[in-house]
């Protein structure tokens, strides 16, 4: 377990350097999810392969998603520190290789390496925070961690544009190297843990089956309707293969002595509820961050910068609510807090349904802000509830399971919303405003339905999942 540390919370406390290091490491992962969005034309002018560019996003998400549960299991055996250091090192290696890539296929492969590293950094940051802070302290710390993702979502596209226009697109990746070094050095020097001595059993067959099955299914969701048609042999084969391998994975894990994803995960109500909430958060988030800006540009005729800031109100509301959510769940409990947050998100999402070509940007921004407030009150509290239910030896796999569910939700969201938009616009590269308005309207309808299901998932949280002190 982590060594005992003082009770002070904040960047200037004794644990402040560790908190700053995991915030910095998290910011790198968060930024690299969005920073290349504004560098599309610059990169493809240099390397070519414009048609392959979407793979830079898909492969990063895919590699990150399939490795998250594996790292969680390893962290419960080997400790958090070595897995975190490995993740930062692989992420930095991928960043270096991306920065010196000579063509688009190389850049895609190197983005996969980045994603493999990112798969460790995200869950380990949350797990380390769960180890070194008490439940009451985490009520304050979650505001710091939520703020990182919110700031990254706003600054990512801006920094990508600045680097690509005034320096070089390669610095989008190379800037990660000194920052990763600082984060790694701080964690190496400041974070001390004594992991319980356990025989290091690694579930190689289970790891392989999970990677292949989840990878095939997520790839089918991400690229279906884009790189290939949903009813094409490729799409059908990937879905079928992924499903068959995942069934085999489930049967194997029931008999495995040291499973990478223990079956008991699915028997604990608080973990199942938290994972379902996380899955829906991932889907709603990708739907709104993508299509609110698209609606503002394609239907309301606004510029890219204004459209981007309109969508960013979602990520501004998130940390504001997250910073206060801890005080709320310490007072009224996890389930009540989650129900309030999900209800607010559902109301915000429902307010987007009437949006049409006569709507205003403030109307869009207010709805997104309300959804963000709701997300801030449900996303982290449900994760902390799941962590609180677990022992040290289980916390890594519990944390990674909920974060894996969020990645799955993002992939499902990309597939569902992409299919809705393509069905209404006829796969047009430049859809007419009326067709786009109709398409995004149905995206908002589905987002509202998902947010409503989130209320049901929140109600599934056990009533006894009440913070202790």
Automatic annotation (TrEMBL):
<feature type="transmembrane region" description="Helical">
    <location>
        <begin position="332"/>
        <end position="352"/>
    </location>
</feature>
<feature type="transmembrane region" description="Helical">
    <location>
        <begin position="169"/>
        <end position="192"/>
    </location>
</feature>
<feature type="transmembrane region" description="Helical">
    <location>
        <begin position="299"/>
        <end position="320"/>
    </location>
</feature>
<keyword id="KW-0812">Transmembrane</keyword>
<feature type="transmembrane region" description="Helical">
    <location>
        <begin position="439"/>
        <end position="461"/>
    </location>
</feature>
<dbReference type="GO" id="GO:0022857">
    <property type="term" value="F:transmembrane transporter activity"/>
</dbReference>
<feature type="domain" description="Major facilitator superfamily (MFS) profile">
    <location>
        <begin position="18"/>
        <end position="466"/>
    </location>
</feature>
<protein>
    <submittedName>
        <fullName>MFS transporter</fullName>
    </submittedName>
</protein>
<dbReference type="InterPro" id="IPR036259">
    <property type="entry name" value="MFS_trans_sf"/>
</dbReference>
<feature type="transmembrane region" description="Helical">
    <location>
        <begin position="18"/>
        <end position="41"/>
    </location>
</feature>
<comment type="similarity">
    <text>Belongs to the major facilitator superfamily. TCR/Tet family.</text>
</comment>
<dbReference type="Pfam" id="PF07690">
    <property type="entry name" value="MFS_1"/>
</dbReference>
<keyword id="KW-1133">Transmembrane helix</keyword>
<keyword id="KW-1003">Cell membrane</keyword>
<feature type="transmembrane region" description="Helical">
    <location>
        <begin position="228"/>
        <end position="249"/>
    </location>
</feature>
<dbReference type="GO" id="GO:0005886">
    <property type="term" value="C:plasma membrane"/>
</dbReference>
<feature type="transmembrane region" description="Helical">
    <location>
        <begin position="141"/>
        <end position="163"/>
    </location>
</feature>
<feature type="transmembrane region" description="Helical">
    <location>
        <begin position="407"/>
        <end position="427"/>
    </location>
</feature>
<dbReference type="InterPro" id="IPR020846">
    <property type="entry name" value="MFS_dom"/>
</dbReference>
<keyword id="KW-0472">Membrane</keyword>
<feature type="transmembrane region" description="Helical">
    <location>
        <begin position="108"/>
        <end position="129"/>
    </location>
</feature>
<feature type="transmembrane region" description="Helical">
    <location>
        <begin position="364"/>
        <end position="386"/>
    </location>
</feature>
<feature type="transmembrane region" description="Helical">
    <location>
        <begin position="83"/>
        <end position="102"/>
    </location>
</feature>
<keyword id="KW-0813">Transport</keyword>
<feature type="transmembrane region" description="Helical">
    <location>
        <begin position="270"/>
        <end position="293"/>
    </location>
</feature>
<dbReference type="InterPro" id="IPR011701">
    <property type="entry name" value="MFS"/>
</dbReference>
<feature type="transmembrane region" description="Helical">
    <location>
        <begin position="204"/>
        <end position="222"/>
    </location>
</feature>
<feature type="transmembrane region" description="Helical">
    <location>
        <begin position="53"/>
        <end position="71"/>
    </location>
</feature>
């Amino acid at each position: 377990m982590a060594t005992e540390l003082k009770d002070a919370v904040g960047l200037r406390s004794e644990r402040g350097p560790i908190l700053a290091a995991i915030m910095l490491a998290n910011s790198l992962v968060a930024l690299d999810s969005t920073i290349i969005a504004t560098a599309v034309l610059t990169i493809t002018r240099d390397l070519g392969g414009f048609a392959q560019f979407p793979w830079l996003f898909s492969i990063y998400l895919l590699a990150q998603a399939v490795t998250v549960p594996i790292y969680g299991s390893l962290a419960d055996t080997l400790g958090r520190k070595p897995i975190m250091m490995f993740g930062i090192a692989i992420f930095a290696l991928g960043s270096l290789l991306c920065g010196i890539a000579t063509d688009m296929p190389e850049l895609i492969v190197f983005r996969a390496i980045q994603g493999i590293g990112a798969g460790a950094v995200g869950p380990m940051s949350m797990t380390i925070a769960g180890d070194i802070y008490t439940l009451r302290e985490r009520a304050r710390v979650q505001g710091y961690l939520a703020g990182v993702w919110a700031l990254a979502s706003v600054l990512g596209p801006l920094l990508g544009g600045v680097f690509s226009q005034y320096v070089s697109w390669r610095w989008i990746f190379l800037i990660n190297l000194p920052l990763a070094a600082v984060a790694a050095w701080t964690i190496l020097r400041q974070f001390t843990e004594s992991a319980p001595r356990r025989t290091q059993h690694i579930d190689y067959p289970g790891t392989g089956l999970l990677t292949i099955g989840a990878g095939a299914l997520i790839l089918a969701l991400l690229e279906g309707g884009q790189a290939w048609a949903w009813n094409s042999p490729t799409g059908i084969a990937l879905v079928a293969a992924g499903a068959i391998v995942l069934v085999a994975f489930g049967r194997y894990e029931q008999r495995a002595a040291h499973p990478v994803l223990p079956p008991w995960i699915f028997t604990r109500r608080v973990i199942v509820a938290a994972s379902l909430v996380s899955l829906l958060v991932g889907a709603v988030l990708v739907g709104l961050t993508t299509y609110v800006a698209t609606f503002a540009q394609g239907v309301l005729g606004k510029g890219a910068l204004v459209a981007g800031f309109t969508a960013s109100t979602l990520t501004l509301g998130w940390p504001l609510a997250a910073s206060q959510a801890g005080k709320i769940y310490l007072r009224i409990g996890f389930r009540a807090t989650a129900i309030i947050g999900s209800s607010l998100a559902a109301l915000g999402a429902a307010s987007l349904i009437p949006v049409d070509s006569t709507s205003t940007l403030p109307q869009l921004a207010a709805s997104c802000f309300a959804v963000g407030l709701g997300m801030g009150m449900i996303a982290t509290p449900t994760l902390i509830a799941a962590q609180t239910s677990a022992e040290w030896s289980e916390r890594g796999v519990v944390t990674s399971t909920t974060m894996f569910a969020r990645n799955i939700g993002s992939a499902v969201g990309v597939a569902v919303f992409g299919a809705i938009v393509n069905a209404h616009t006829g796969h047009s590269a430049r859809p007419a405003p009326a067709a786009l308005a109709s398409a995004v309207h149905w995206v908002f309808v589905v987002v509202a339905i998902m947010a409503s299901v989130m209320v049901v998932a929140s109600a599934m949280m056990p009533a006894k999942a009440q913070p202790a002190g």
